[in-house]
Amino acid sequence: MSVPEIILEVKNLKTSFATDSGEVRAVDGVSFKLPKGQTIGIVGESGSGKSITSLSILRLLASNGKIKEGEVLYKGQDLLKFSEDQMRKLRGNEISMIFQEPMTSLNPVYTVGQQIGEALMLHQNMSKKEAHIRSVELLKLVGIPSPDKRVKNYPFELSGGMRQRVMIAMSLACDPEILIADEPTTALDVTIQAQILELIKELQDRLGMSVVFITHDLGVVAETCDYVAVMYAGQVVEYADIRSLFHYPKLPYTIGLLKSLPRHDIEQDKLEPIKGNVPSPHDMPVGCRFSPRCPAATDLCRAKMPQLETDEKGNQVRCWIYSEEWDGESEVNIYGETRIAKSRGTETVLPD
């Protein structure tokens, strides 16, 4: 089987913000790979660093934010070494982003046609008339009815679902290689959410885009992604192909997230929420950052940070249970599921 081409690789990304209380590390050593034409989901609770990771990739941080370390390799070139002029040419052209809230991302004093057309004139050297014609085509592509009329509307004249479709049309205007979708369905009702997800998938298949899908919703991840990076407190704590993650999650945090998700394919007496909260970036635990909430935590977990362990499939987990140094029981019960410690036996292997 041929090895897929990696179009985007993030290596040891560290992003900090200067605050009145001192420097805060929002992203702390994040690494992942995005194969060409495929989708990676970045998932985790609010405050885990998902959105800051995406903004760091495009270098769209607030003025008090700074990338301290790492590489963002797009087609082998490190975007962190690009000039600001090079990044302006890349953003919205080769790498596009759908932002979380379309009402705050769209300019209220310009029509949607003017806003879509701006990118086309800037990156594709189209005339105003050509950009208008292409804007109508894009609105039709994303399923907006009467696109020749809607192209003249202002954002406040459209519903939430319509505005989100306009954002998608804007992001697709220049046929990007990569689409970053940051919680694109958060503010929408479930019917519109399903339509937007289906639209992104359909357009990806048609245009051959690679997608970074940022969400807190594992249900959305199951429907849309090929790979998943689970983030917690600024770090990637588990990385796996979609089948491995849902059928045999390793990390206690990932297991807890899945246990708190309503499922129709298995019998559930009740949902089991993870106790506690994500730690404050001003006061991170000394050892594993999930240890204060973890039902399997030992003294080792509370004293020392685990490293990412990689298995033969390339899946990764940041947990002492899967390390030779594990100091707990050989069989570990995590939210009702048994896992075998690496130092005491052989892990369960998924069938092909």
Question: How would you describe what is shown here?
Answer:
With 352 residues, the chain is α/β, with parallel strands linked by helices. The chain is built from twelve helices and 14 strands. The protein has helices at residues 50-57, 84-90, 102-105, 112-123, 128-141, 147-150, 160-172, 190-207, 218-224, 242-247, 252-259, 299-303; strands at residues 6-19, 22-35, 39-43, 65-74, 77-78, 95-98, 178-182, 210-215, 227-232, 235-241, 309-310, 316-317, 331-334, 337-340. The strands form three sheets. Strands 6-7-8-3-9-10-12-11 form an eight-stranded mixed β-sheet, with helices on both faces. Strand 11 and strand 12 (316-317) form a beta hairpin. Helix 4 (112-123) packs across helix 5 (128-141), helix 5 crosses helix 7 and helix 7 (160-172) packs parallel to helix 8 (190-207). The protein is globular.
